[in-house]
Amino acid sequence: MRLELEDVHHVYAPGTRFEVPALRGVSLAVEPGEVLAVVGGTGSGKSTLAQHLNLLLKPTRGRLLVDGEDARGMKLGELRRRVGLVFQFPEAQLFESSVRRDVAFAPRRLGLGEDAVGERVRQALAELEISHLADRSPFSLSGGERRRAAIAGVLAMDPEVLVLDEPTAGLDPFARAELLGLVRRFRERGRSVVLISHDLDEVAEVADRVCVLERGRVRALGTPEEVFYANPALAPATVRVMAALGRAEAGRPVRFADTLQALKELLEG
Amino acid sequence: MLGRGLGQFYPAESPVHRLDPRAKIVAAGAIVAGLFLVDSMAGFLVIGGAVVAALVVSRVPVGSFLRAMRPVLFILVITSLFQILFYRRGELIFGWGWIQVYTGGVELAAFLALRLALLISATTLLTATTSPLALADGLEDLLSPLSRLRFPAHELAMMMSIALRFIPTLSSEAEKVMKAQAARGAEFSEGGLLRRARALVPVLVPLTIGAFKRADELAEAMESRGYRGGAGRTRYRELRFRPPDAAVLALAVAAVAGGALV
Ligand SMILES: Nc1ncnc2c1ncn2[C@@H]1O[C@H](COP(=O)(O)OP(=O)(O)OP(=O)(O)O)[C@@H](O)[C@H]1O
Ligand SMILES: [Mg+2]
């Protein structure tokens, strides 16, 4: 599934004193099978952009294309199933008496049979490694466990595109690494992930492409090498180290392992 | 999320905004009471004139004022319609099958509509020109004589200002949770009444839990800063009753008296 935003503008509270132009002409595609990272300062419009990918917010101007077709022609429920959106701090959406029942909410809404629902729930819980919490109340869990339960609730819809709005904010390093593992596994199945993040180091590890938003506009878009080496001051530690060394023969590594390898080769050669 | 709905404060620089909240509360109360005493067109004109004059002086844009009235418009239309159709005194002015309209019904409907509209206008004007904090302060002060009778005036005012303070927070929270559930396939505008009510469960549960959590945190924050109720508490902003406040109060009472008598 390919999603494309075409010159999307979004204004909050138009025509009032509180008018905020949050997106100002964003054009961007999410290709099948890629991890697209969206980075940018607070208030740059990342969450607003995320909500346009399943039309929870409608563009004030511009449109969303799904596999080349205008998404306004699609059923909203269908679009929202295929594009799974995990909100910023999703733990606030849990409401059922047990994790299992909460994760079952979305597949039930899809009208699946009991067996199919059970299977979806089992898979989603296993994917997030919280199968042992299935019968606990969501409100008795720790913050990180609740976050994972909420993500499982979206995964249970079996979406083709997964949009994660700052999923690792406030998680411990271990939980963070696990979540990035989930992102990679999702991509390996040929599906795409839109990862909104403030953490450039984690973006460097998993992203195929990076989009930098600034005050509602796309400031840069490209592979991590292109984007980060164009402005090493605003780049992950790996890029800053390589840029500071200024050794062109080392190439332009971005991931930690690649950087380490390049440094080893420099030292030995 | 911001700046909409009944009872929103509209910050501006105007003589009405600067009035002592106590004067405004009493004046609005007098007008509301007066509306139930008035039973002539001339009387409504007097009180309506006073309200419109206050609106003009207050610099609250008429547009946002009318928007605040919109939710009540429906009730207003329905009740007026009932009066027109079913009140059968005076002369018959229109008859068609079971539909019979009498002058008495039209008059009653007009009075009812005017009464409701002016009632809402007066109270909306009060909340639009008085910040929630000033409103709570004024109310506390007006109720304070009752605290001798163990009426919890301060606590009531504090509860009111906290509730007002958290309305925007709660409504933006509700919006967020609704969107998050919609992303999981929830539908809020589909099916009959029962189905719609059931669809709200996934929104109300997290919202309620969030509200309790926030209340806990607020209580802890207040206690840790030494809040111990109203006794012996001084104010940062002292209320001052000045000559213009007295003048406005006198005018409001005069309008009500005039309206009731003509
Ligand atoms: N519901 C809303 N009503 C009005 N304005 C809003 C609303 N949501 C966001 N905004 C405004 O739109 C702009 C973009 O907000 P958005 O939430 O998309 O930013 P963000 O990049 O996700 O920020 P963060 O990193 O803090 O999550 C901000 O200026 C914000 O104040
Ligand atoms: Mg955000």
TrEMBL record, chain A:
- What keywords would UniProt list here? ATP-binding, Cell membrane, Membrane, Nucleotide-binding, Translocase, Transport
Domain of life, per lineage: Bacteria
Q: Where is the protein found, in the record's own terms?
A: Cell membrane
- InterPro entries, per this entry? AAA+_ATPase, ABC_transporter-like_ATP-bd, ABC_transporter-like_CS, ABC_transpr_CbiO/EcfA_su, ECF_ABC_transporter_ATP-bd, P-loop_NTPase
Q: What is its main location?
A: membrane
**Any one GO molecular function term:** ATP binding
Q: Spell out the family assignment given in the record's similarity comment.
A: Belongs to the ABC transporter superfamily.
Q: Which PANTHER family match?
A: HEAVY METAL TRANSPORTER
This chain belongs to the protein called: Energy-coupling factor transporter ATPase
- The organism of origin for this protein: Rubrobacter taiwanensis
Automatic annotation (TrEMBL), chain B:
Indicate the transmembrane segments per the record.
25-56, 68-87
Alphabetical keyword list: Cell membrane, Membrane, Transmembrane, Transmembrane helix
Q: Where in the cell is it found?
A: Membrane
Specify the domain of life of the species encoding this protein: Bacteria
Q: Which Pfam families match?
A: CbiQ
Q: How does it sit in the membrane?
A: Multi-pass membrane protein
CC annotations in GO: plasma membrane
The protein's matches in InterPro entries, at most eight in alphabetical order, are given as: ABC/ECF_trnsptr_transmembrane, ECF_transporter_component
Please give the name of this protein. Answer: Energy-coupling factor transporter transmembrane protein EcfT
Q: From what organism does this protein derive? A: Rubrobacter taiwanensis
> What lineage is this protein's organism placed in?
Bacteria, Bacillati, Actinomycetota, Rubrobacteria, Rubrobacterales
